[in-house]
Design brief:
Oligomer: single chain
Strand order of the largest sheet: 5-6-9-12-17-19-14-11-8
Number of strands: 36
Largest sheet: 9 strands, parallel, barrel
Strand content: over 45%
Low-confidence stretches: 1-43
Mean pLDDT: 89
Structural class: mainly beta
Length: 441
């Protein structure tokens, strides 16, 4: 069945609210050390045209003549298993709201031709929706945002089961994808699935000369706040490039079980001097198979804590980090305010099989593999390869250790002075030492 609609548009202007404070507490008791793990490098995903069920109701929308387009679930004649096709062309803005589909029969919103948005896309109270620009076989980014004066995608209300996929963002002056203050960022978490945001994904997107991805939330035992919790966040197969002063490019400040992998970052933050992380995640998760070159900031600032009473293990592995103007490759840190009796505890960490070279070329801080602060948990650190690092001290295990974190494993890490001694080239970064460093990319 094919249904055609043309709808008016309503847009809300809202702002991001994020907060961050520091605290301290006494470390918890000793913890159990888990055995090391490894993970294969999966192939890059391809656009999946078959992800729309054959029996989905097809709805064609838009004229592509610069209009404001609204997709409102409360006025559509279908509540699940829908395939909404937006006609190629230009749109001033697109509003997507009031869609609550079941997880096994989501809404698909895709491009029918190249869809260019000149102002903003806004979502409000949507669940189990895939917004994807993969519907044209020879065009990777079917939704294109260019020369945006504010932000590209703003989101409020509920947003469970959301996938944002195959979009490009160029010359966006504010945040690229951001939660507004009345979305999940401000919902109090009560321990139920209904009080958190689950299964949020950003996949196969291009970010060029653009701001960051930003979702707030806060866990603070000092103030009794626990709000805006995200669970199962995936940021993968994206490219971030040619952005002179964005600082942090992806931030979730209250998140459980994130997975950040296979992202490429190049030529970022040439004009930025903040102590930032390209990725900044507070909670527990994994950071792996990412490649960052020619940038400023830690590749990730990983602030650790675990939900519940059992400590999770945060992992950083198989990443390539090369040529930073400031700081080391990774940061690990924990704060007492995030250890909240009845809600959360500390987390352990593993850092392994990473290749890191030419850190902190400004030579005003340590430029090693790991900036280690107190985490209240333990650290396993092994099979890492470093070269052309920077320190005011003799380089040993390549950890800038400012903590009393217990390092339970520190083995098979290799430092050499030059790139020629470490890797075959600075394109694939193939290690010259079997089993040490990241896999070639």
């Amino acid at each position: 069945m094919i249904i055609k609609y043309k709808m008016p548009f309503l847009l809300f202007g809202l702002f991001v609210l994020m907060a961050c404070k520091k605290g301290d507490t006494t470390p918890p008791p000793e913890i159990e050390v888990l055995p090391p793990t490894t993970a294969p490098i999966p192939p890059a995903p391809t656009a999946p045209p078959s992800d729309v069920p054959a029996d989905a109701t097809v709805i064609e929308l838009g004229r592509g003549e610069g209009e404001e387009l609204t997709i409102d679930g409360s006025t559509l004649k279908v509540s699940s298993n829908a395939f909404i096709k937006i006609k190629g062309g230009r749109y001033s803005s697109i509003l997507i709201r009031n869609i609550s589909a079941p997880a096994n029969k989501p809404f698909f919103i895709k491009n029918d031709g190249i869809v260019k948005i000149t102002n903003i896309m806004h979502t409000s109270n949507i669940s189990n929706v895939v917004i994807s620009g993969d519907n044209v076989a020879d065009q990777k980014y079917g939704f294109q945002f260019e020369n945006i004066s504010f932000r590209a995608i703003s989101m409020d209300g509920r947003m469970n089961g959301i996938t944002i996929r195959n979009m490009s963002f160029k010359n966006v002056r504010d945040y690229v994808i951001a939660g507004e203050k009345n979305n999940g960022d401000s919902f109090p978490y009560t321990g139920t699935a209904e009080s958190r945001t689950e299964n949020f994904r950003i996949i196969n997107c291009l970010f060029e000369n653009a701001g960051g991805i930003s979702f707030g939330g806060n866990l603070n035992s000092d103030t009794g706040e626990d709000s805006g919790l995200f669970k199962n966040v995936e940021i993968a197969y994206n490219t971030f490039q040619n952005t002179p002063d964005a600082g942090t490019l992806c931030s979730f400040t209250n998140v459980q079980d994130y997975d950040i992998h296979h992202n490429v970052v190049n030529n970022v933050n040439a004009n930025n001097n903040n102590h930032n992380g390209i990725f900044f995640m507070q909670g527990n998760g994994k950071f792996h198979e990412n490649k960052l070159t020619n940038y400023q900031g830690n590749s990730i600032r990983m602030w650790l804590y675990s939900r519940g009473s059992s400590p999770a293990t945060n992992e950083i592995y198989n990443n390539i980090c090369y040529n930073t103007r400031k700081y080391g490759a990774f940061e690990l840190q924990g704060f007492g305010r995030n250890i909240y009796p009845g809600k959360s505890t500390y987390a352990n960490a593993k850092v392994y099989n990473n290749t890191v070279g030419k850190m902190n070329t400004s030579r005003d801080f340590e430029g090693q593999i790991l900036d280690l602060y107190n985490t209240f948990g333990s650290l396993e650190y092994y099979n890492n390869l470093g070269f052309d690092l920077n320190s005011k001290r003799e380089i040993g295990n390549m950890i800038n250790n400012m903590s009393d974190t217990k390092i339970t494993k520190d083995t098979n890490n290799k430092y050499v002075a030059t790139q020629a001694e470490a890797v075959i080239d600075i394109n694939t970064f193939q290690s010259k030492y079997s089993g040490i460093g990241a896999a070639a990319m």
